[in-house]
Design brief:
Blueprint: E1 6-8, E2 11-13, E3 19-23, H1 29-48, E4 55-58, H2 63-69, H3 75-84, E5 86-89, H4 103-110, E6 115-120, E7 138-143, E8 153-154, H5 159-171, E9 185-186, H6 192-208, E10 213-218, H7 224-242, E11 246-248, H8 249-259, H9 261-273, E12 277-283, H10 284-293, E13 300-303, H11 305-318, E14 328-330, E15 337-340, H12 358-370, H13 374-389, E16 392-393, H14 395-398, E17 405-406, H15 409-418
Parallel strand pairs: 3-4, 3-5, 5-15, 7-13, 10-12, 10-13, 11-12, 16-17
Antiparallel strand pairs: 1-2, 6-7, 6-14, 8-9, 14-15
Bound molecules: NADPH dihydro-nicotinamide-adenine-dinucleotide phosphate, 2-oxoglutaric acid and magnesium ion.
Family: Belongs to the isocitrate and isopropylmalate dehydrogenases family.
Catalytic activity: D-threo-isocitrate + NADP(+) = 2-oxoglutarate + CO2 + NADPH
EC number: 1.1.1.42
C-alpha cells in the first residue's frame, strides 16, 4: 500500500511504498524523465527484490500545467509536494527579459528549499576539457532563496523604477546611478539567517561525509554588506557552533596578528592533522580560475545564489558537462526536497530522444540517498560507471570520445538497467 514519507523530530520515516511526486518538465524533460524513472524503478526493484517500490504521482508545472489548468505553477502542485515531502522534477523553461518569472526559483522559494546541493565528481572515461578531471571532487552548497536571483527588480521606464530611483537619490543620498533615466533596478537581499543555515548545512555535510574543507565563495571586496557579510556570517557560524571541529581562516588571521604567520601556519597544520574541517574563503573571480588550475584545493563550496549558479555549470564542464550534473534543492530543517538536474530544457533537442539523461538519473541517486535507500542508489552509480567505461554513451559524450557507441536517451537508460549488478 502506498504511503507518505513523514518527518518527525528531524527523523525521516520512509514507508516501503512511498508516494513521490514528479514534474515531467518542459523541452527535453519528458525524454529524460522517461529514461530516468525506468532506471530508478529498476534499481529499487533489484536492490529490494520488490519489497520496496516508489509510487510516482505526477504533479504539474510549466507548459503542461498551463495547457491543462491555465496556471504555470498550480497551488495543488505546491500543496502536494509540501504534503509528500520530496519530489523530483525535469527542467522548466524561463523566458528571457519578460514573461513569467522562473518556476524553478518559485518552487525553491515557496517550499523554502534553502540549499541547492550540486555534487561534482568525475566518472572514469567521461570526456573532459581538463587534463586531470579526476582531481575535481566538490560539493556545491548554493544558497537558494535570496540574492539578486530572488527576482526583486523593476523594469526601466516603469513608474515603479522611477519611484525606487527617486527614493535612492533623494532619501538615501545615492549619486552613483550612471544613467538614472534609463536604468532598470534589481535588489540583492542577503541575510544572516539565510547565510548561516546554508553554511551550517555545508559544514554538517563536510563532517558527515569526511570532507576536508568548506570554502565560502563571495565577492565581498566589492559587495561589502551582502557578499562580504556572507563571508563574515559564515565564519561566525563555523566558530560559534562547531568549536574545535573546525579551523577557520578568520582564526588564522587572528593568530597572524597576535603571533605571526609561522604560528598561524602551524595552527592550521595541526588542525588539518587532527581532521578538523578547514573553513576558508575565496573571492569569486579568482576562485573560478583556481577550480581549473588547482581543483584539489577545494572540497565543499558554500556560496550565494547567483555565484552558485555560475559555479555549478563551470564545475560541471570540468567533469564532462551538464549532461551529467545532478542537483538537489533541500531544506535540511524540514526534510523537504526537490531533486533536479543542473541543466535546463535544451529545447532544440526536445522530443528527439537524444540528450543525456544522466543528470536527472544522478539526481534520482541523490533522492534515493536522501530517503536512505542507499543500496538502490549504489546500483545506479555502479551501473553508470560501468556503462560509461564501456563507451556506450549519448551524443554529448560520443562527440568527444574515440571509439564510442552513440545511443539514444532511452537506450542509455536500457544500458544502465542491463549493467545493474
Ligand atoms: N532547473 C531548471 O529547470 C533550469 C532551467 N533552465 C531553463 O532552460 C531553458 C534553456 O536554457 P539554456 O540556457 O539553453 O540551457 P540548457 O541547459 O537547457 O542547454 C544548454 C546546452 O547544454 C547542453 N545540454 C543541456 N542539457 C543536456 C543534456 N541533458 N544532455 C546533453 N547536453 C545537454 C546542450 O548543449 P549542446 O547544444 O552543446 O549539445 C544544450 O544546448 C531556459 O528557459 C532556462 O531558463 C536552465 C537551467 C536550469
Ligand atoms: O530557473 C531557471 O530557468 C534557471 C535556473 C538555473 O539556471 C539554475 O538553477 O541552475
Ligand atoms: Mg543554472
Amino acid at each position: 500500500m502506498s504511503e507518505r514519507i513523514t518527518v518527525e523530530n528531524g527523523k525521516m520515516n520512509v514507508p516501503n511504498h512511498p508516494v513521490i511526486p514528479f514534474i515531467e518538465g518542459d523541452g527535453t524533460g519528458p525524454d529524460i524523465w522517461a529514461s530516468a524513472s525506468r532506471v530508478i524503478e529498476a534499481a529499487v526493484e533489484k536492490a529490494y527484490n520488490g519489497e520496496k517500490k516508489i509510487e510516482w504521482k505526477e504533479v504539474l508545472a510549466g507548459q503542461k500545467a498551463y495547457d491543462q489548468t491555465g496556471e504555470w505553477l498550480p497551488d495543488e502542485t505546491l500543496e502536494t509536494i509540501r504534503d509528500y515531502k520530496i519530489a523530483i522534477k525535469g527542467p522548466l523553461t524561463t523566458p528571457i527579459g519578460g514573461g513569467i518569472r522562473s518556476l524553478n526559483v518559485a518552487l525553491r522559494q515557496e517550499l523554502d528549499l534553502f540549499t541547492c546541493l550540486r555534487p561534482v565528481r568525475y566518472f572514469e572515461g567521461v570526456p573532459s576539457p581538463v587534463k586531470r578531471p579526476e582531481d575535481t571532487d566538490m560539493a556545491i552548497f548554493r544558497e537558494n532563496t535570496e540574492d539578486i536571483y530572488a527576482g526583486i527588480e523593476w523594469q526601466e521606464g516603469s513608474p515603479e523604477v522611477k519611484k525606487v530611483i527617486e527614493f535612492l537619490q533623494n532619501e538615501m543620498g545615492v549619486h552613483k546611478i550612471r544613467f538614472p533615466e534609463t536604468s532598470g533596478i534589481g535588489v540583492k537581499p542577503v541575510s544572516e539567517e539565510g547565510t548561516k543555515r546554508l553554511v551550517r548545512a555545508a559544514i554538517d555535510y563536510a563532517l558527515k561525509e569526511g570532507r576536508k574543507s568548506v570554502t565560502l565563495v563571495h565577492k565581498g571586496n566589492i559587495m561589502k554588506f551582502t557578499e562580504g557579510s556572507f563571508k563574515n556570517w559564515g565564519y561566525e557560524v563555523a566558530e560559534q557552533e562547531y568549536g574545535d571541529k573546525v579551523f577557520t581562516w578568520a582564526k588564522y588571521d587572528r593568530i597572524v596578528e597576535e603571533k605571526g604567520k609561522e604560528a598561524a601556519n602551524q595552527a592550521q597544520d595541526e588542525a588539518e592533522k587532527a581532521g578538523k574541517i578547514i573553513v576558508k574563503d575565496a573571492i569569486a573571480d579568482i576562485f573560478l580560475q583556481q577550480i581549473l588550475t588547482r581543483p584539489k584545493e577545494f572540497d565543499v563550496v558554500a556560496t550565494m545564489n547567483l555565484n552558485g549558479d555560475y559555479i555549478s555549470d563551470a564545475l560541471a564542464a570540468q567533469v564532462g558537462g551538464i549532461g551529467i550534473a545532478p542537483g538537489a534543492n533541500i531544506n535540511f530543517e524540514t526534510g523537504h526536497a526537490i531533486f533536479e538536474a543542473t541543466h535546463g530544457t535544451a529545447p532544440k533537442y526536445a522530443g528527439l530522444d537524444k540528450v543525456n539523461p544522466s543528470s536527472i538519473i544522478l539526481s534520482g541517486v541523490l533522492m534515493l540517498e536522501h530517503i536512505g535507500w542507499r543500496d538502490a542508489a549504489n546500483l545506479v552509480t555502479k551501473a553508470m560507471e560501468k556503462t560509461i567505461a564501456s563507451k556506450v554513451v549519448t551524443y554529448d559524450f560520443a562527440r568527444l570520445m574515440d571509439g564510442a557507441t552513440e545511443v539514444k536517451c532511452s537506450e542509455f537508460g536500457d544500458e544502465l538497467i542491463k549493467n545493474m549488478e
